[in-house]
Design goal:
Elements lengths: L1 H6 L2 H28 L15 H7 L2 H35 L4 H9 L6 H15 L6 H24 L5 H8 L4 H30 L2 H7 L5 H9 L5 H27 L8 H7 L1
Keywords: Cell membrane, Membrane, Transmembrane, Transmembrane helix, Transport
Subcellular location: Cell membrane
Protein name: ABC transporter permease
């Protein structure tokens, strides 16, 4: 027994305690909100008195229904456009850019260093003054694409960085067209990176407040509806709304985790590195 206790050095104990406290700090609020969403005593749900009344009120609220539809629309289309453009840009960057690749990469990731508030305001001014476009769903999607594009590039680049371009050359040597080579050789090998970029950019666009707020105005999204409701105090419906959003995010992350554990997709993760390290 003393031998086992001797392995637990003070530094290791302090590290484990720090990790445990950090996880409690991060996830206890999520657990609290989840319990409050399904309890009659939502203000202090300990122990919870289980009920679906709060969730039912949320789902029957027309404002939140409209906001959910708008958020899903922005999230899906912004993720699709970001992933498609980032995929094409990353392929061109890694295969055809040559010595200018660092310059193009700096331009691609430049939006990472621009605050979302500034991006929303600048998009509103550009669309209104130069393009003559009013703020709407389309302009909000395009602005979110600008914001999410850089993240998608970095995610897809981790997958394509180790890609063997000789496979494409071999396919074209045997008579495959560039389009057929992409869909039958390249895409089946890089789809995990594309899926990872889609999931991350969807979450970012779905939860975005600053960009969508300036471009949509009175058109509600889930973040803007929640922000507006906070002016009148924290109502139980906000607990249910936060729980629904958390469930969507955790479900997408769980899909990525299961695909990684089953080996169906790696998303840039290489398990052999962990085995070699052990």
């Amino acid at each position: 027994m003393s031998m086992k206790l001797g392995k637990w050095k003070p530094g290791k104990i302090a590290l484990l305690a720090t990790v445990a406290v950090s996880y409690l700090f991060l996830y206890l609020p999520v657990v609290h909100i989840g319990l409050a969403s399904f309890a009659r005593n939502s203000n202090f749900p300990y122990p919870p008195k289980w009920s679906l009344d709060i969730m039912t009120r949320l789902l029957s609220n027309s404002l939140y229904q409209t906001a959910l539809g708008n958020s899903l629309l922005i999230g899906v289309f912004a993720a699709l456009l970001s992933t498609a453009l980032a995929g094409l840009a990353t392929i061109g960057l890694l295969r055809h850019a040559g010595r200018r690749a660092p310059v193009y990469l700096a331009l691609f990731i430049a939006p990472l260093f621009v605050a979302e508030v500034l991006l929303g305001i600048s998009s509103l001014i550009f669309n209104g003054l130069f393009l003559g476009l009013q703020g709407n769903i389309v302009s909000a999607i395009l602005a979110n694409v600008v914001h999410c594009f850089s993240y998608a590039v970095l995610i897809i680049a981790t997958q394509l960085y180790r890609y063997d371009w000789r496979l494409d050359d071999a396919a074209m040597v045997f008579g495959a067209s560039p389009a057929r080579t992409f869909f039958e050789v390249t895409l089946p090998l890089i789809w995990p990176g594309l899926l990872g970029a889609f999931i991350v950019t969807f979450i970012m666009a779905f939860n975005n407040l600053e960009i969508s707020f300036y471009l949509l105005g009175a058109t509600p999204t889930l973040p803007s509806a929640a922000w507006g409701a906070l002016r009148y105090g924290v109502k139980p419906e906000l607990y249910a709304l936060a729980t629904c959003v958390n469930l969507i995010v955790f479900t997408l992350l769980a899909v990525m985790f299961v695909l990684m554990m089953t080996g169906a997709a790696t998303f840039g993760h290489r398990p052999e590195r962990e085995r070699s390290a052990v």
